Amino acid sequence: MRWYWIDRFVEFESGRYAKALKNISLAEDHLHDHFPYYPMIPNSLVIEGMAQTGGLLVCEHNQFTEKVVLAKVPKAVFHCAATPGDTLIYTTTVEYIRPEGAMVTATSHKGDVLHAEAEIVFAHLNDSRLGSLFEPETFLRMMRLLGAFDVGHAADGSRLTPPKRLLQAAEGAMA
Amino acid sequence: MPTKEEVFEKIQAALVDALGVDEEDVTPEATLVGDLGAESIDFLDIVFRLEKAFNIKIPRGELFPEDILTDAKYVQDGKVTEEGLSELRKRMPFANLDDFAKNPVVQDFGNLLTVADMCRFVESKVEVTD
After folding, report:
1. C-beta separation of A58 from A96 below 8 A
2. What is the ipTM of this complex?
């Protein structure tokens, strides 16, 4: 299993907000245990999806130089269940990004229905041992795979492009 | 201009949201770490909520000067030196450091800050009425 809990970005405004969608499918193994005969996406994975949406938004603002990790979830409220066939839209809005960490507010919608709301705090780690989890080429691959550069805009309204250091690192990794 | 009571109520609300504690647990005497269970990441969250609630700016290290506690100049054998204590007093006029100064073990510092200290800290940044 790959640890992707969003399928695609549909909007990405650098340093401000990002919107991603998550299609729920019966092909996801865990849904057959959560719960037998009543499959629904676990709330924890909705939070993870919102954290991936917001986390990449924070990473991009930092030009992918910080090790951004989910640190705490001060608030998470779920209003209904989401089941196979549903498409969830996660919208995350930056509250602040500082040298030591960041916070986003997040919502999950099923069509027009509010499915969940959360606050998510990220920490910027300075532990160099975690380097392998934050390789530039990994970020580049994720951002491309999720379509962030297809729909994204930089802070000045121009099209979002990968930072040079990500491209150089990816080239270096291929060489 | 808020009253002291209003300052306390806003701080209480911020701590309830940031730490997931009950309102009645957030008393003036409660310590953030020991009684309310705050961890280091919570201070980032708390500072943000205070800034939003009171429309103020709190520079890094102003409420919780961790830079002093990690500076070899101010810490020896796990304890804050006299020079460090004097620097802490200068930087934290809102906190009572007398008890901590008797045995200034760095690890115990986190348990020093109370809700009342935070109220005094905010009152030093916004104009309040009685």
Report:
1. no
2. 0.82
